Structure formats: structure tokens, C-alpha cells
Amino acid sequence: DALLQFYKGLGKDYMEHYDDTRSTTCDVVRGAIIPLSRERQCAHSEVLMHGACVRPAVMVTHGWGNLFRDLVAAILADALNEVEINMIACMLGADFQQLEAWVRAAKVGNRSYWVC
Question: Residue 105's closest CA among 74, 72, 80, 76?
């Protein structure tokens, strides 16, 4: 749920130039994650979890040059036990509310991931 809420804010609440078809993980880290965590002087995981200490269930590796949308889609696909990310990646841009409803219905919004 925290990852979805963070993603929902991209291009609106922070990193106004976010483009899900062009913005890489590096772009999002520099344009949103670092500024948000710098403001609060803590790790971004603390920002997402409102200061709660949460032990990750899964560790995820990423490529800096890959689309951030695809990283989020891969994490959600894992949580939802989906074998591919394309539909979820499309939903992030076109049907976000339905994706949120799916995550809620599957009760996987609290699953924790460590992205490294």
C-alpha cells in the first residue's frame, strides 16, 4: 500500500516531470526519493512507513536505467502472484484505482519489500 501511495504521488505531489513511459529508477531516486527523505532526514523506507520499523519479506534488485514503472509493476506482480508485469504496468498508468482495489482484495498491501 505504501508503494502504491508513493507511486500515486509521482507527477502530482512530487517530481512533477514524472513520465511513466520515460522515467527511470535513477530519475525517481534523484527527483523524488532523495528530496523526500532529505526533507525528513531519514531513509525513504521510514518516510513510506511513517517511521515504523518494518522487516522486509522480500529483497528486490533493480537496474538504475530501467523504467521505475516496471520496477513497481514487478513488485506488485510478485505480491499478487502474477507471472508477468505487462498488465500491471499498464494499470499503473491507465487504471490505477482498479489496481489499488485488486491489491486490497488480495490483501497483499502490507507485504514488505527491500529494494536494493
Answer: 80
